[in-house]
From TrEMBL:
Top-level taxon in the UniProt lineage: Archaea
Protein's UniProt keywords contain Isomerase: yes
Classification via CDD domains: crotonase-like
Protein name per UniProt: Enoyl-CoA hydratase/isomerase family protein
Pfam families the UniProt entry points to: ECH_1
GO molecular function: isomerase activity
Keyword Isomerase tagged: yes
InterPro entries per UniProt: ClpP/crotonase-like_dom_sf, Enoyl-CoA_hyd/isom_CS, Enoyl-CoA_hydra/iso
Family per record: Belongs to the enoyl-CoA hydratase/isomerase family.
Provenance organism: Halosegnis rubeus
Keywords, alphabetical: Isomerase
Length: 235
């Protein structure tokens, strides 16, 4: 589900499950992180195939682990590890959000160094509407990106914001016709400086304690809402 192409200084990493709105499976998480880390280019652009950027975690996988706390913890650990690997990867990573980003898709964008959106982009953390919340570092990175006030609004309401509102709150830095133009702009700079700045920007101290608390809270909610989640999946 992960396609890569190295093109004129930019590695383009495409989430390619358009029929599933590019939802991430366990294998997809590992492949995504590896594709970013292994880039020979100093800039990586993460995009989604089809009409969506990323719908987040694959609901079939989530439903499978919902009643087993150990498997649920392992699933959340995998997602958190993937986002941390992307955040700490040597290349500068650009999230090119062209279409809907939901839940884990927003968390993927938050793990990137730069987030840009097209006018077709929409973003939301809708987990609260069916008893869950962002647990791939979402409760950690979202307030850092947009501040507590906006983070609470987005997380507690589950509402959808368009590209312009996302830019106004700092969730994305620009609204552009094509995210590739931003990746090319960055790639035109010195590769050594880019990698150094990327590493410095992602060094925010340990988030392990906050992520452990996030994971445990998520597992508890996941087990409590397993039946509702299965029903939501089958709609």
């Amino acid at each position: 589900m992960i396609h890569t192409r190295d093109d004129d200084g930019v590695r383009v990493v495409t989430l390619s499950r358009p029929d599933a709105r590019n939802a991430l499976t366990l294998d997809g998480l590992d492949a995504l992180a590896t594709a970013v880390e292994a880039s020979p280019e100093s800039v990586v652009l993460v995009r989604g195939a089809g009409e969506a950027f990323c719908a987040g975690a694959d609901l079939a996988t989530v439903a499978e682990v919902a009643t087993d706390a150990d498997r649920a913890r392992a699933f959340i650990d995998r997602g958190q590890e993937t986002m941390t690997r992307i955040e700490q990867a040597a290349p500068v990573v650009v999230a090119g959000i062209d279409g809907p980003a939901r839940g884990g898709g927003v968390e993927l964008a938050l793990a990137c160094d730069v987030r840009v959106a097209t006018p077709d982009a929409t973003l939301a953390e809708p987990g609260v509407t069916f008893g869950l919340f962002g647990a791939w570092g979402g409760t950690v990175r979202l307030p850092e990106a947009v501040g507590t006030t906006h983070a609470n609004d987005l997380s507690l309401s589950g509402r959808v914001v368009d590209a312009d509102e996302a830019r106004s709150m700092g969730l994305v830095s620009r609204v552009v016709a094509d995210p590739r133009t931003v990746a090319d702009e960055l790639a035109a700079n010195d590769s050594g400086a880019l990698r150094a700045l990327g590493r410095l920007g992602s060094h925010r101290g340990s988030t392990a304690d906050r992520e452990r608390a996030e994971r445990e809270a998520f597992v508890s909610q996941l087990r409590a809402h397993a039946d509702a989640l299965a029903e939501h999946r089958n709609r």
